[in-house]
C-alpha cells in the first residue's frame, strides 16, 4: 500500500506540494508525538502539522470534544450563525487575550486557513484607515493567497513595502546583535517620515514575533516595542501574525506577551483549531469599520474545529503548557548549543519555547563581514533525510532552506525531548561525515 499510494500521489498531484516531496511517509495512525506509516514504521513528528498540533496528534481532550459535538446532533455546517459551540470557543479565546485588547476586542471568523485571516486583516485595516499600502518584513511568511503572498519574503510585488527583519545571524547590515534591530527600526521610521518615500501613510504593518517558515527567527523584544511605538505614533494599525507562534508555542500563551506589545489586529489559525481548520482575526473594537455583510465566506462555521480548538486552548491554559514549553525549550536550546559547539556546520541555533531552529552552513566557506557563513541547503536536506532514516520528522525553513526546524507538541515528555535531540545529533553526525 505504502509504495502504491506514494506512486499515485506523485502521478496525480502537482509537484508544487511541499512536505510530501521530502517526507515519503504514508501516515495511517498517530498519537501524541508519534506517527505510524502504512509501512509500519514509526516516527517522532516534530513537524506537528506545520506547528498546528499544540497537544500532539489525537489528544484525548480534543477527540472527546469532537465526539461530544458529533454525538449531540448539532449541525456541523452553521455558516456565520451563533451556536453554543462557537460561543464557548470565543469565550475561551477572549480569556487568553491581553486585557487591553480583550476589553474592546472584536472577532471575525475568516475561514479555514491562516492566509484567509491575513487577507481579512489587510482588508480590515484598509477599510478602517481608508488607505492602501502595507508594510511587511524580509523573510516573512503570511500565506499563499495573493496579498498574503505579496507580504511574504521573496515575493515580487509592489503594493507592499518590505523592511529588513532583525535577523541577527545574517543581519542585512552585517552588524548583528541589537544594532541590527536598532537599524531596522530606524529604517522604518525614516521611510514613514520621508514624504518622498511614497509609504508615509500605509494602511497597516504586519509582522511575526518569531518568523517560522523564515527560519525560526525570534525578533528582539526591544525591536517589537519599537515597532509598536513607531506605528502607534503615526496611527498605523499593527497586525501581528501569531498563526504559528500562538497557543503556548513560544513559552507564553501568545508570543506578544514576551515583549508586552498589544497589537491592533491579531491573526490566529493553526493550533486554535485543535488540528482542524480554523482562522480568525481579533482586533481593537474601534477598527471595526466593516458594514454588515462586508466580509463573507461559506466555511466559517466549522463546529468541530471550534470544539477542538476550545478544548486545546483550555488544556494549554489549565496545564500551563506555555510555561512547560518555555522550560523545555530552554533546555533543548542549551543542548542544541552544545551540538553547535561540536559541529562547524552549525552556524546558529535559536528559538523561543518549542519553536527551535538549527541553521546549517558551509563549514569550508569563510564568514561574511558579520561572521555568518553561507547557508548549506544540501547539507540541510541530507540532515532531514538522515533524521527520517532515524525515525524523526523535521521540516526545513529559512531563506535558503538550510534551517532545520523543530516544532514538537507542547505535551512531550523530557524523555521524548531527549530522544528527538539524540536522533538529530546522530543525523547531523552522519550527514557531515
Ligand atoms: N502566517 C504564518 C506565520 C504561518 O506560519 C502560516 C503557515 N505556515 C500562515 C500565515 C499561512 O497559514 P495557512 O497555511 O493556513 O494558510
Describe this structure in words.
The two termini are 34 Å apart. The chain has helices spanning 2-12, 19-22, 48-51, 60-72, 84-95, 99-102, 114-129, 146-150, 177-193, 221-233, 256-259, 303-318, 321-342, 377-389, 414-432; strands at residues 27-31, 34-37, 42-45, 106-111, 134-137, 160-163, 204-207, 210-211, 217-218, 238-241, 265-268, 279-283, 346-352, 355-360, 392-393, 395-397, 403-406. With 433 residues, the chain is α/β, with parallel strands linked by helices. It has a domain at 62-318: Type I PLP-dependent aspartate aminotransferase-like (Major domain) (Aspartate Aminotransferase, domain 2). The strands form 4 sheets. A 7-stranded mixed sheet has the order 4-12-11-10-7-5-6. It has a 4-stranded mixed sheet with strand order 1-2-3-15. It contains 15 helices and 17 strands. Helix content is 40%, strand content 16%. A hairpin with a 4-residue loop joins strand 2 and strand 3. The structure holds 4'-deoxy-4'-aminopyridoxal-5'-phosphate. 4'-deoxy-4'-aminopyridoxal-5'-phosphate (PMP) binds at residues 50, 113-115, 118, 141-143, 208, 212-213, 241, 243-244, 269.
